[in-house]
Amino acid sequence: xxxxAGEQGLGxxxxxxxxxxxxxxxxxxxxxxxxxxxxxxxxxRYYQLLNALLDDARALAHDPVTVNRLRRVRERRRSER
Length: 81
Description:
Helices cover 69% and strands 0% of the residues. The protein has five helices and no strands.
């Protein structure tokens, strides 16, 4: 079965989450502040959505570098538990 992962595409919120993950943040709290101000999300909800995105083929097709980097970080954290 040959599915085109990018056919449906990501919604604006999903693209915004990945774009935020590509940025660098200086200082503690800067990322959480950006999550609240720019996306209008509580950080807990943001990380729930991000975690789901990492398992979404559409996200991988949209931004493979960011998704693969975040998957590696997630796996490393899981293995440290």
